[in-house]
């Protein structure tokens, strides 16, 4: 076999895993899509987000907590190897509550996550007055917020670039503009037939976002990927005013304000729609009235790679051992986990009990 | 202003003016929407209000615009000014911004006539205050009766550069030098096209007369130059270049206060792309063109395109294309039958043929210079986000195979102009570095808003 | 550096550019007006603080951004001068305006 690993997909997930494997001195090839591929990574909001994750699924709460803990190390390591700044800030994050019902529900969720993580998840509920001290421009329409010091944000595109340069640092062979025709499991390894030709490897990791279903099938894996469109918008540059990322409004290091987001079931359509743009703008202005006179520079849609229960899938093929699929929509938050423990799990040198909870088998309707 | 029209025309340049007027006369319920205060687009900018003295300097071609404007205003078409189109998608919902309020207009047919823009001419120092486009000089002349004072240099190539030099001469403006960056076309290339261009001989004569006037005025003209760059600290102070003649090379420096640049014009394809129209790369014109038939029908069933926004054809041809679009849309909307359409179109088509006959000649004579399509590493490509050509080349070498990936990693194209001034350069650089064709490389994805809108205006839609 | 070629006698308006008053022809754009008045820049860019003057005059380059009547990041070539208009340089990124 030419390679130890082929990673299909060069987005945040594929790049994290390829980097993690190459860092362990494995010979890795990455097959990536083209300039116009859907690329969920381009629609990422940039949150390194802990609060609220896994309130209804304990393993995910623990998984996310671990991922966030590994983040600072990954940042430092990438900075050392690539010299690229990725604007990572562990600033703490806010989730706004607009009324009492939302507040109560939020408190419940926060407590559940604390329970699932044996108290290691930290949070604080802020009432309006406390919130206003931290974010003076917040409107009176916001009752309060849940705050977690463990949240942060980053430039997702720079993170991707940094991971790709990290891949280059570790001599990953990166093949862009690829379309995969088929993948065969034979002769103790895997053969990927793509635009590039035929590449062979001992093991293969499918991290191709929306293509995971089609490619997973070729290797005996049933991966239920759900397409979910999110529209986001970005404003002109502003002087810094917002020190905390929030779920729907975040000021980037450049000063632009990123505004999100929708969840839409529209199939493979990453376009915009006036009704959603209006909704997003209204919500942002109702939270931050001073944004009313701020200019919008761009609005776009991106297709999330969702699963039926919104939790990730980490699956090794039963039929073709050595073939793996990774499906998730939080490619940023989980990046350090993917580069570290998950890459190790794929390489077979990392025991990860927690990962068994994320197998695609949990979606099987049939029971034995 | 209504919510719906049978035909919505976007852009009040020659194509849009003629189309809207013609459509109204054919009984179509038509609205013409334009971002400016007065009709005329860029070429006939301010033609309604321009003073007499200015008109003398601008030449009689400019006055044709007045006739078109009058034709529109008398036609019964609805004209909506100060109305930039901020939203258009492939469902053909058109969002316009009028007096700080967004309105959506639906139409049975959409006619895109958004015109052209200057081809960007990146060179070292082009971002310094005092450097502008030749088109900007024309706009100042037409809309504000202003001309450069102090020292002035013109640099670039193309009919517009000659035109503005002539216009400035008429207005008594002193020109220090004209630097012609046009690659010298071989006679073998031009002569065959010249023969075919002869039907538009009046146009050719005009070009010749401009050149004679410039020569007579004794303006120093430099050709076959290399390494053009602008120097200055807070603003332009001088330009520098090399002239090459045979084996000898001379370094020239000219101090100046204003530099006007021009490398021809390219179609402004943002609206067609937003509507989902197919575009093709034209290797001769070195620009994207909107795929369409003789009637202006694009690849999207309810969308027609006319004028320079589909492919550079010039003002006269744009007007004729607009009329053909109006005939075709009237036919599609069953206002006229095919026989009437074809009968009226006959004369227009032969006039259009005549106007188009000069294009191949002009394209060969005024080919853009590769030096400004593939600038040196130290040249600014993205003026908004201040990204240099070297950074773009590096991103491509690191694996970016297209302009959108380059944008994601360098921020080139993320600023307020959304790639208007850097898009063509980025695509050219990617093609050059990867060896791929322009068709394979593609262009920046166009997204709303197509014109500025605030969050408050959006929230109040 | 620019001058008018038509005689005075057209209507004028008085505008204030960086705290100084100027009479400029009515009906022209703010970009044209500031060029006529000889400003050395209209803004300093947010990325490097470099000075810029208008470039394209037709609304596609966004280099002519100025603060007009207190509203930042306005394309000066798209706004017509008006009596008593306040025109200021756009210094880098816009401030999130305080309600006043």
Helix and strand layout, with pairings?
The complex is a heterotrimer of chains A (368), B (461) and C (100).
Chain A: E1 3-8, H1 12-23, E2 28-31, E3 47-48, H2 58-82, E4 93-97, H3 100-116, E5 124-127, H4 128-134, E6 144-148, E7 152-153, H5 156-169, E8 173-175, E9 180-186, E10 189-194, E11 197-206, H6 212-218, E12 226-237, E13 249-251, E14 256-259, H7 274-287, E15 295-306, E16 313-316, E17 323-327, H8 335-347
Parallel strand pairs in A: 1-2, 1-11, 2-8, 11-17
Antiparallel strand pairs in A: 3-7, 4-6, 5-6, 9-10, 10-11, 12-14, 12-15, 13-14, 16-17
Helix pairs in contact in A: 1-5, 1-8, 2-5, 2-8
Chain B: E1 4-10, H1 14-25, E2 30-33, H2 52-58, H3 60-75, E3 78-80, E4 85-88, E5 94-98, E6 101-112, E7 116-118, E8 131-133, H4 134-144, E9 146-148, E10 152-157, H5 159-170, E11 177-180, H6 187-197, H7 201-216, E12 221-222, E13 225-231, E14 238-245, E15 248-255, E16 258-263, E17 265-267, H8 270-275, E18 279-282, E19 287-290, E20 303-305, H9 315-332, H10 338-356, H11 359-365, H12 370-373, E21 380-382, E22 387-388, H13 389-397, H14 403-410, H15 423-434, H16 438-441, E23 453-454, H17 455-459
Parallel strand pairs in B: 1-2, 1-6, 2-3, 6-20, 8-16, 10-11, 10-16, 11-12
Antiparallel strand pairs in B: 4-5, 5-6, 7-17, 13-14, 14-15, 18-19, 21-22
Chain C: E1 2-4, E2 12-17, E3 20-25, H1 30-36, E4 43-44, E5 51-52, E6 65-68, E7 71-75, E8 86-91
Parallel strand pairs in C: 2-8, 4-8
Antiparallel strand pairs in C: 2-3, 4-5, 6-7, 6-8
Q: Can you count the helices of chain B?
A: 17
> Helical amount among residues of chain C, as a percent range?
under 10%
| Count of domains of chain B | 3
Any idea of the CATH class of the largest domain in chain B?
A: Alpha Beta
Q: Tally of extended strands of chain C?
A: 8
Structure description:
The complex is a heterotrimer of chains A (368), B (461) and C (100). Chain A has helices spanning 12-23, 58-82, 100-116, 128-134, 156-169, 212-218, 274-287, 335-347; strands at residues 3-8, 28-31, 47-48, 93-97, 124-127, 144-148, 152-153, 173-175, 180-186, 189-194, 197-206, 226-237, 249-251, 256-259, 295-306, 313-316, 323-327. By secondary structure, chain A is an alpha+beta fold. Chain A folds into 3 domains: 3-72 and 156-224 and 310-363, FAD/NAD(P)-binding domain, CATH 3.50.50; 93-149, no CATH class; 226-306, D-Amino Acid Oxidase, Chain A, domain 2, CATH 3.30.9. In chain A, 56% of the residues are buried. Chain B is an alpha/beta fold and 461 residues long. Chain B folds into 3 domains: 4-117 and 266-336, 3-Layer(bba) Sandwich (FAD/NAD(P)-binding domain), CATH 3.50.50; 120-263, 3-Layer(bba) Sandwich (FAD/NAD(P)-binding domain); 374-441, Arc Repressor Mutant, subunit A. Chain B has helices spanning 14-25, 52-58, 60-75, 134-144, 159-170, 187-197, 201-216, 270-275, 315-332, 338-356, 359-365, 370-373, 389-397, 403-410, 423-434, 438-441, 455-459, and strands at 4-10, 30-33, 78-80, 85-88, 94-98, 101-112, 116-118, 131-133, 146-148, 152-157, 177-180, 221-222, 225-231, 238-245, 248-255, 258-263, 265-267, 279-282, 287-290, 303-305, 380-382, 387-388, 453-454. In chain B, helix 1 (14-25) runs parallel beside helix 3 (60-75) and helix 1 (14-25) packs parallel to helix 9. The radius of gyration of chain B is 22 Å and the shape is globular. Chain C has one domain (12-91): 2Fe-2S iron-sulphur cluster binding domain, sarcosine oxidase, alpha subunit, N-terminal domain (Ubiquitin-like (UB roll)), CATH 3.10.20.440. The B-C interface holds B 35, 37, 42, 49, 51, 53-54, 57, 117-118, 127, 129-133, 135-136, 139-141, 143-150, 171-172, 234-235, 257-258, 268, 383-386, 415-417, 420-421, 451-452 and C 1-6, 10, 25, 27-29, 32, 35-36, 40-41, 45, 47-48, 50-63, 65, 73, 75, 77-78, 80.
